[in-house]
Amino acid sequence: MRNFIKKFVCATVSTAVALSISGSAFAQTVNMDLYYDGANHKYSAEEVKIVVKGEKITGLDVPPLIIGERTMVPARAVFEKLGCEIAWNEDAQEVYVMHGNDIITLKIDSKTGSKNGTDFTMDTPAKIVNDRTLIPIRAVSEAIDYNVGWDDKTRTVTIDEKKNEPTEKPSKDNSSDNNSSNNSSNSGNTSDNNNSNNNSSNNAVTPEPELISVTDVTVPESLTSEQKFYIKASGEISKYNSFILENDRLVVDVENAKNNVANNNITTTNSSVVSAVRSGQPESSVARVVFDLKSLPKYEVKLSSDKKTIEVSFTVTTVSNVSTSTKGTTDYVNIYGNADINVEMYMLADPDRVVIEVQNAVSSLKSNYTAEGTNYINGIRTTQYDSKTVQIVADVSRTVEATITKNNGYTSVAITKSSLDNLSYDSSSHTLTLLNTSGITDRGVQETDNYRGGTYRLTLNGDYSEHFGTGTIKCGDDYIDNIKVGLDSNGHTYFEAAEKRIVAVKKTDNSGTMSFKFVNPKEVYSKVVVIDAGHGKQDNGASGNGLYEKNVALAVVQKLYSRLEADPNIKVYATRLDDSYPTNASRAKMGNQAADLFVSIHLNSSTSATPKGTEVLYNTHSNETGAGNKLTSKTAAQIALTWVINALGTENRGIKSRPDLIVLNQTNIPAILIETAFISNPSDAALMGNDATLDKLADNLYSAVSIMLNDYTIR
């Protein structure tokens, strides 16, 4: 789990925490525009202070906020003071707090959290406010054994270590004192203490249970055997827990036990489900066994009748038979197994093939099957493609279409004659080939790259539906999902590829064929940049002086985009050119897929109108050596800072390392985030509200990007 967490540690963007409060006192007022729960909110409240282990926390990029009678404060500044690591998983919408061997998991908008896989309930859920993640401080603090206090007079949140509990239970008088001094956090212990004193006069210490040993973990003998694992103990197992961690890991904790497994790290070469089994001792009386899963199949954990063995079994599909059948003009490939047959499918060309892959499965098939009496199938070939995938290949005589149908006890792939003709798609090379094209007299091809909509269209200068037909090719590779062939409003034949990633096209043309190979844009263009307008749609970003950050950032990006698009030496992509909201992870992904450089445009903000100026944020990646004049994020940040200040005349606030921002830490190319000016400062805001100034800024940003891409080594 910790390896998984590390991937997301830097993804936390000003994470925050929540605390219940009441009352009021005189203090500085904080005024902000907030967006959460699908709506905009005007915020005005008195300042809240934070003290962690006696140290006042200052210099926060996000002030403490009171929302719904809860105080929200930046988590990184708080919990790192407590020795925690904070992580954010955008895909799962989960926050992770790690403290020692403990992992606290909180899901956005859920009042249910978990500690090491065990659920607990909170009075308020984690929320996203202004693209910041807010989590409840009391629940998390108590989970890691800290106390949270609130001083109403000074409006101060305090977080401190819990005092050491006495080895013997306290007397009734001491219990009462504890209740009065720490009522909110120890109320649960009070009842226990009182009952203890009523029922026991000698304050005897409860004896620790005798520990058993976990002695062995056994694994399957072969790929085709039952996927059962056995955790064996020296005595009766009194209690155990099992739970799933992210990154597909099944954990089994045996309580009141010591780990005495000789091999604590077993590579399971004979399992189609589990790649490794690891054992350890996370606590003094808990033995832990972790199963690293290749995927997440159905599983069962149960205790043997003698209570000395835990059986962990996984349901794995064994593909037992393949047959073919025909009904009219449709051929069928029928796949049988001992469990549900889940398949993925794609096409290959030269020769034409339908490739069917059964997921999380092992094969007991013959390597070859005949297909007598079928319309299009020449034969069937099978193989155990990898430890968890069975591959079935239908060799076909022409271009076909295929669909998947689940039946009672088996899965069928229906293969029909395609309405398409004289074309093929090869998934291995991501290439669309048009055949017998000598009759196409005007061979001009219009290319429409709608990358934000996820399509790439190739349009011929005429109606060639009689030659190619109309319909859809199922591609299924990691570049293109399918290609739709049709006629546009001008009556011209088009081929529209549904993209799984940003692509460019390499065209090959001769009298007999036309080929279009979908490739990484960097195979076509020598210099590629992705520019990003921060926030968007429901996320206004910062606001002040009559401006919204999302709108100003978009205006700058639109102007910069037009300048870069006019440069024949630079290919530009934009994460958004309208009031839309790509996730931060998708913005970084676009940069990684296509670009040499990523530039994100933002505006800064403060609770005070005084701060002003320009700063540029960056994160140094492991692949950024700077050797041989290679462009790095830090170098790009310095160049951008110089040119932005030159355009705006703003105060120089320098460049700053920010490994906590998703668009910086999840990119693997030089990436910068430009805080152009302070929207909360009247003079800075006046600059950013002036269209002529934005034109000058766009001019200078174009110059900065040109220097980065032209004067430095980028690949």
Beta-strand content estimate? 35-45%
- Average pLDDT level: 83
Number of helices: 12
Write down how many β-strands occur, each being a DSSP E stretch of 2 or more residues: 53
Shape: flat
What structural category arises from helix and sheet content? alpha+beta
Query: Helical amount among residues, as a percent range?
Result: 10-25%
Instruction: Give me the Rg, rounded.
Output: 31 Å
Query: CATH superfamily membership of the largest domain, which one?
Result: Zn-dependent exopeptidases
Kindly report how far apart the N and C termini lie: 34 Å
Segments where pLDDT lies below 50 for 5+ residues?
1-26, 163-203
CATH topology descriptor of the largest domain: Aminopeptidase
> Strand sequence of the main sheet, in spatial order?
49-46-50-53-51-52
Biggest sheet, in brief? 6 strands, mixed
CATH architecture type of the largest domain: 3-Layer(aba) Sandwich
List keywords for this structure.
715 residues; alpha+beta; Copper Amine Oxidase, Chain A, domain 1; Immunoglobulin-like; six-stranded mixed β-sheet; five-stranded mixed β-sheet; flat
